[in-house]
Automatic annotation (TrEMBL):
<comment type="pathway">
    <text>Carbohydrate degradation; pentose phosphate pathway; D-ribose 5-phosphate from D-ribulose 5-phosphate (non-oxidative stage): step 1/1.</text>
</comment>
<protein>
    <recommendedName>
        <fullName>Ribose-5-phosphate isomerase A</fullName>
        <ecNumber>5.3.1.6</ecNumber>
    </recommendedName>
</protein>
<feature type="binding site">
    <location>
        <begin position="98"/>
        <end position="101"/>
    </location>
    <ligand>
        <name>substrate</name>
    </ligand>
</feature>
<dbReference type="Pfam" id="PF06026">
    <property type="entry name" value="Rib_5-P_isom_A"/>
</dbReference>
<comment type="function">
    <text>Catalyzes the reversible conversion of ribose-5-phosphate to ribulose 5-phosphate.</text>
</comment>
<feature type="binding site">
    <location>
        <begin position="85"/>
        <end position="88"/>
    </location>
    <ligand>
        <name>substrate</name>
    </ligand>
</feature>
<dbReference type="InterPro" id="IPR004788">
    <property type="entry name" value="Ribose5P_isomerase_type_A"/>
</dbReference>
<dbReference type="InterPro" id="IPR037171">
    <property type="entry name" value="NagB/RpiA_transferase-like"/>
</dbReference>
<dbReference type="GO" id="GO:0005829">
    <property type="term" value="C:cytosol"/>
</dbReference>
<keyword id="KW-0413">Isomerase</keyword>
<dbReference type="GO" id="GO:0009052">
    <property type="term" value="P:pentose-phosphate shunt, non-oxidative branch"/>
</dbReference>
<dbReference type="InterPro" id="IPR020672">
    <property type="entry name" value="Ribose5P_isomerase_typA_subgr"/>
</dbReference>
<comment type="similarity">
    <text>Belongs to the ribose 5-phosphate isomerase family.</text>
</comment>
<feature type="active site" description="Proton acceptor">
    <location>
        <position position="107"/>
    </location>
</feature>
<feature type="binding site">
    <location>
        <begin position="32"/>
        <end position="35"/>
    </location>
    <ligand>
        <name>substrate</name>
    </ligand>
</feature>
<dbReference type="GO" id="GO:0004751">
    <property type="term" value="F:ribose-5-phosphate isomerase activity"/>
</dbReference>
<feature type="binding site">
    <location>
        <position position="125"/>
    </location>
    <ligand>
        <name>substrate</name>
    </ligand>
</feature>
Amino acid sequence: MDQDSLKLKVARAALDIVQPGLESGTVLGIGTGSTANMFIDLLGEVAHLFDGAVASSEASAERLKSHNIPVYDLNAVDRISVYVDGADECNEALQLIKGGGAALTREKIVAAVAKEFICIADESKWVPVLGAFPLPVEVIPMARSHVAREIVKLGGDPILREGVVTDNGNVILDVYNFSIAQPLAMEARINGIVGVVCNGLFALRPADRLLLGTADGVRDLRRPASSLDS
Ligand SMILES: O=C(CO)[C@H](O)[C@H](O)COP(=O)(O)O
């Protein structure tokens, strides 16, 4: 089965989980990327059942609106019941690398607010150790060189993502050759570099549930009680 078919399967599986809870007053959190787009398109079929969504990017907001799903500013919302989003990598603790679509900061904010975070991904995203996918780091433009030097000290190879400006007006450094054995510690460490807005490690707030599309069907994985960091 090809990758897009697996993405569609997990998007459908997420809707099957979310739909019974949709009612007047429900506001969902919606992620960014091709898998999240498939979920948005399916959600359009049940738009009449719930109030609307908070989007993690301008692109997702536009797609939601194209399905007549109202989009709310996060500051106008008390509660997000479920956040549904894809990932670039995931491990068995349901820690993630995200930000391939440059939306990591808003994704992390919406995930932090949501009661439950359901990650939807095809099996190509499953890894034993995070870091084969270059780690996105959103950076204030004037701090780009400083942050890059600090990341080199941590052992990574940062490369500016050419031609990309985030929805927040910042730039992205993609960090290659990072083998992230301790995601919690690494997330905090990178956040501590002055000029970093956010990094794409989701270890402090991992997914609660991962729907992983495989050739044998959709695996429904729950976050284990403890993390893998020692
Ligand atoms: O983090 C993201 C965007 O910033 C996406 O969730 C991630 O890049 C996965 O994208 P796709 O579903 O297209 O494979």
